[in-house]
Design brief:
Elements (H helix, E strand, L loop, with lengths): L14 E5 L3 H12 L3 E6 L10 E4 L1 H10 L2 H5 L3 E10 L4 E6 L9 E5 H14 L2 E5 L5 E4 L6 E4 L5 E5 L1 E4 L15 E5 L2 E9 L7 E8 L3 E7 L12 E9 L3 H7 L1 H11 L4 H4 L9 E3 L2 E5 L7 E3 L2 H4 L8 H18 L3 H26 L8 H15 L2 H12 L27
Parallel strand pairs: 1-2, 1-11, 2-7, 4-14, 11-19
Antiparallel strand pairs: 3-6, 4-5, 4-6, 8-9, 9-10, 12-18, 13-16, 13-17, 14-15, 15-16
């Protein structure tokens, strides 16, 4: 992919309506407003704040934040991660993937999702963006005579019109039904329990560590940086635990102590984190969806982030893909005079990258979260062999970095260098 020298390109400024102020929506608002477009963001939450658990910021996501001028501020509250480790409950190592196993100065970062939100949202507030909080959009309606689209609220109010609609309201978006794009949305039968705890001694720094027993039990410990806010820096760590969606009520009925005992038996290193949990209400449960659509646009609507391609978090790419979506959309709009041609170019530009991660995620997830016990046996046998093969090991690490876009000779995607010059206008 080639990166233009400026995003103020061939397309004249247009009126852009963005639905959702999460990672994809906020990043798109920053890119497009700095490119000279008139941007309005609609967010259904009246007072959005930094919530969530730990996520991985991969080299792709870091690069996009660098272009936006936000990289250093975000990384200041992150924890570097140099490797991803997985072993069985019996102590057998399945893989130990290191960023240094491929050329380039790559490293991952663990951070609280709220940190990413906080910096993006603050930049949106400071940007030339019309931010409408507490506004839900239920439907899109053609405004007629080439005037674009109205955004219709549940109360029937028509907002806009806007020349283009950027749908970035997450995996549960209802606005996919407002276009004729082919799609398939399936909830995953498995989710994960999450808890963000303190790690004052930094014992969990440096590695994302996972322990598995069969395909039904997985515990992970993700260094999570210093958390949202500007206060004193104290290391945090996110604990996650696989659980079937259908088993959530049974987990609650069994009680916290029974679960803690099970996790300690599976991953003794998690004990200091478990000791911080006093009630089940402190533990979050995350459900996941698999969203498949192509293209991700029609003549006036484009879908970004989880609204377009939600997937299992097995490869830890959700936030990174959303950030990359926003940057590629801005590049596509800069490269074309016609809006429909620009949106079609966006979908074509994203296809190989997103197809790869959706394919690998769908293929990989049942080996770690499913009721299919034989897949656990195959995983325990096959992964140590696969990581011993240089080609497959390099492919796995490229996949971890977010730069893979094929399993053959396909070249990895190119990362833009951090850009302190105001090619996008001054960073917020």
């Amino acid at each position: 992919m080639a990166f233009s020298s400026a995003l103020r390109g061939r397309m004249k400024p247009i009126d852009v309506g963005i639905i959702g102020c999460g990672t994809a929506g906020s990043a798109a608002a920053l890119f497009l407003s700095r490119a000279g477009h008139r941007v309005t963001v609609y967010e259904r939450v009246p007072d959005p704040g930094p919530v969530g658990a730990g996520v991985m910021l991969q080299p792709t996501g870091q690069a996009v934040l660098g272009v936006l001028g936000l990289r250093e501020a975000v990384l200041a509250r992150c924890t570097p991660i140099t490797r991803m480790i997985c072993r069985t409950a019996g102590g057998r190592q399945l893989f130990d993937l290191r960023y240094g196993d491929i050329p380039g100065d790559h490293v991952g970062y663990g951070l609280h999702r709220g940190v990413l939100f906080e910096h993006l949202f603050r930049a949106v507030r400071a940007a030339n963006v019309n931010l409408r909080l507490g506004v839900s959009v239920e439907n899109l309606e053609n405004a007629g005579r080439g005037r674009g689209l109205y955004f219709v609220t549940p109360e029937g109010e028509r907002l806009g019109p806007h020349a283009v609609c950027v749908v970035a309201d997450g995996a549960r978006s209802q606005l996919r039904d407002d276009t004729t794009i082919g799609k398939r949305i399936r909830p995953y039968p498995w989710g994960a329990l999450w808890f963000v705890g303190e790690d004052p001694g930094g014992a969990f720094r440096g590695a994302l560590a996972q322990v598995v027993r069969g395909t039904e039990h997985m515990v992970g410990l993700l260094p999570t940086g210093f958390g949202p806010g500007e206060g004193p820096a104290t290391d945090k760590v996110s604990l996650f635990y696989s659980l079937p969606v259908a088993g959530l009520d049974a987990w609650r009925e069994a009680g916290l102590d029974a679960w803690k005992s099970e996790v300690r038996a599976l991953a003794p290193s998690a004990a200091p984190v478990l000791d911080q949990i006093d009630s089940a209400e402190e533990v979050l449960f995350a459900r996941y969806h698999d969203v498949s659509m192509y293209p991700w646009n029609d003549d006036r609507v484009v879908y970004l982030g989880d609204a377009a391609h939600a997937m299992s978090p097995q490869l830890g790419q959700g936030a990174n893909l959303a950030l990359w979506d926003a940057m590629v959309l801005a590049e596509a709009l800069a490269a074309h005079e016609s809006l429909p041609i620009a949106l079609d170019a966006y979908s074509r530009a994203r296809r190989s990258h997103l197809d790869y991660y959706q394919f690998v995620t769908r293929w990989l997830t049942p080996f770690f979260q499913s009721d299919l016990a034989p897949l656990g046996w195959l995983r325990d046998l096959g992964f140590p062999l696969a990581t011993a093969l240089p080609f497959l090991r390099r492919l796995m690490v490229r996949s971890m970095c977010g730069i893979a876009q094929g399993i053959g000779i396909d070249a990895p995607i190119l990362l833009p260098a951090p850009d302190p010059v105001p090619r996008l206008g001054p960073a917020a």
